[in-house]
Amino acid sequence: MMIRLLVNAREPYFFKKGGEGMPSKANVQELQELTGLLQGSQAVFFCEYKGLTVEQIGQIRAKIREAQGLMRIAKNTLFSLALKEVGLPVPEEMLSGPNVFTIAYGDPVVVAKTLTDYIKTTKSEALKIKGALLEQRLLGPEDVSVLATLPSRDVLLAQVLGTMEAPIRGLVTVLSGNIRGLVTCLDQIAKAKEKEAA
């Protein structure tokens, strides 16, 4: 006999009756919370952690928060169910071992840079990037490293606006030069006519 558990009334999850696989209230609450956290995400990063101290976890979490992200330790099975619930692919190969999940709500590039910079500056083997989910695409660790080297969304927008502004600025300069020349020419004609009249 199976017991049905509804999370967000989308798709039921079935657990075996008899205690084995029976969800506890804490697991149900955790699943609902993870589902809520994933709903507004731009990207999800999967990292393996081994031997991180409480102080180190606090430091990296603070940096991730500054980058508009959230770092969370959760059970792999619950995180897998939460990914399914919000319609994201489930990378089974990344959901093994002790994982910490980083959810990006802002620019994923900034969060990727924050993670890779932390690993480089601390030279720590305690945190290892396994991959990421970005716009329904699965990225490997190499792809995340490449993502971290890209300019942030704000920098890209500034570059695009700069390239769009340059031709307009040139046109304004040319047009104002022509108008200045016309004004100078008309001024000289007026002075010449004044001399002729005098």
TrEMBL record:
Name the InterPro entries for this protein. Answer: Ribosomal_uL10 (IPR001790), Ribosomal_uL10-like_sf (IPR043141), Ribosomal_uL10_bac (IPR022973), Ribosomal_uL10_bac_type (IPR047865), Ribosomal_uL10_CS_bac (IPR002363)
Ribosomal protein: is it a keyword of this entry? yes
Keyword rRNA processing belongs to the record: no
Q: Which domain of life is it from?
A: Bacteria
A UniProt-annotated Pfam family: Ribosomal_L10
State the similarity comment.
Belongs to the universal ribosomal protein uL10 family.
Which HAMAP family does the annotation name?
A: Ribosomal_uL10 (MF_00362)
Q: What is this protein called?
A: Large ribosomal subunit protein uL10
Protein encoded by which gene: rplJ
